[in-house]
């Protein structure tokens, strides 16, 4: 089917309107009209080829909320008119041990990303949610709970699951002591989710100006990372640290904050990190780990969890033709919300 979106055609060029074809509906496919799409830092990195693997033209966007327009003959879960969502992946082998465990993001054959992935049947490059329509196989389509605000819930599909998954993996619950580094798109969701799980949450930031927002999100206090005395006073204080910093940095200064057997989980930066020091690891049997989004079942779980606990991301709605300005703001950093594109602003013709 013919559709229109916004694409980057080169690393140094702004995104612009782009007409293209979505694949014909297969028996297991769902054809979705995209209503809203969140703007993730990964979209910017990919558009500008920061990771070195972008193939152009690229249509970003993996925080997708929409309405079902059509379903294939084999689809049983969804019907025309249903409100649905699509996150960071649109396919996997569904046959390996990881897929069977509901960890499709770790598929042994490689999961297919919502954009910049390779379609397992046609071999074509996938194109994401900065568009009017998307076609996705049923197993990778999610249900949007009725009480979630469609205009605000899109970032749950990446920022939400990216922070929810490690909180679940490390069994966060009442009594857990959790710190969250950064109060951006990922960080503010990590605070809200951890607080709803019953954890005692501390936000960590370089700026004391973030205190009001941190407390509003559910943190009990704000720790200023460039205040050496404050950092020392919080030594051995946390069971888990969620590090959402999206650029190259040294994670070593945060390690002494962990208690014995504590873990710092990296969810922000993809790529090189600054040289680290093993001493804090050795002295406390502490760990540094990474975490990549979550499986489809867990992504549905976080949507349902947010509906149950009335959790929504902090968002700023933009029009499709404002995406390049939004990217510039992302580059500047210091955003404590997520941009969401209202796709009604994108004309089909």
UniProtKB/TrEMBL annotation:
Keyword DNA damage attributed: no
Gene3D superfamilies referenced in this protein's UniProt entry, alphabetically: Medium-chain alcohol dehydrogenases, catalytic domain, NAD(P)-binding Rossmann-like Domain
Record-linked InterPro entries: ADH-like_C, ADH-like_N, ADH_Zn_CS, CAD-like, ER, GroES-like_sf, NAD(P)-bd_dom_sf
Keywords linked to the UniProt accession: Metal-binding, Oxidoreductase, Zinc
GO MF annotations, alphabetized: alcohol dehydrogenase (NADP+) activity; zinc ion binding
Pfam family, one: ADH_zinc_N
Domain of life: Bacteria
Domain annotation Enoyl reductase (ER): ranges: 13-341
Coiled-coil blocks: none
Cofactor(s) essential for the protein: Zn(2+)
Family of this protein: Belongs to the zinc-containing alcohol dehydrogenase family.
Name used for this protein in its record: NAD(P)-dependent alcohol dehydrogenase
Organism: Pseudoalteromonas prydzensis
């Amino acid at each position: 089917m013919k559709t229109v979106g916004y694409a980057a055609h080169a690393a140094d060029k702004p995104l612009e309107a782009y007409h293209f074809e979505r694949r014909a509906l297969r028996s297991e496919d769902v054809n979705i009209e995209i209503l809203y799409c969140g703007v993730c830092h990964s979209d910017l990195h990919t558009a500008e080829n920061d990771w070195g693997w972008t193939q152009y033209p690229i249509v970003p966007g993996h925080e997708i909320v929409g309405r079902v327009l059509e379903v294939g003959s084999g689809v049983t879960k969804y019907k025309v008119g249903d409100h649905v969502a699509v996150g960071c992946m649109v396919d996997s082998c569904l046959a390996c041990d990881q897929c069977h465990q509901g960890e499709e993001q770790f598929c042994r054959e490689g999961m297919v990303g919502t954009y910049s992935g390779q379609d397992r049947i046609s071999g074509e490059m996938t194109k994401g949610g900065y568009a009017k329509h998307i076609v996705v196989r049923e197993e990778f389509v999610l249900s949007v709970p009725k009480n979630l605000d469609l205009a605000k819930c899109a970032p749950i599909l990446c920022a939400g699951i990216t922070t929810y998954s490690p909180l679940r993996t490390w069994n966060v619950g009442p009594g857990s002591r959790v710190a969250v580094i950064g109060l951006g798109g990922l960080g503010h969701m990590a605070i809200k989710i951890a607080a709803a799980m019953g954890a005692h949450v501390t936000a960590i930031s370089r700026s004391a100006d973030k205190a009001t927002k941190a407390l509003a999100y559910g943190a009990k206090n704000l720790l200023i990372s460039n205040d050496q005395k404050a950092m020392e006073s919080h030594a051995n204080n946390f069971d888990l640290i969620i590090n959402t910093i999206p650029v190259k940095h040294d994670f070593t200064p945060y390690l002494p904050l962990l208690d014995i057997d504590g873990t710092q989980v990296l969810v922000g930066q993809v790529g090189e990190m600054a040289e680290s020091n093993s001493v804090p690891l050795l002295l406390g049997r502490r760990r540094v780990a990474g975490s990549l989004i979550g499986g489809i079942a867990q992504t549905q779980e976080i949507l349902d969890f947010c509906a149950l606990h009335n959790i929504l991301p902090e968002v700023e709605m933009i029009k499709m033709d404002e995406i390049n300005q939004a990217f510039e703001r992302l580059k500047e950093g210091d955003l404590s919300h997520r941009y969401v594109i209202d796709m009604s602003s994108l004309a089909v013709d």
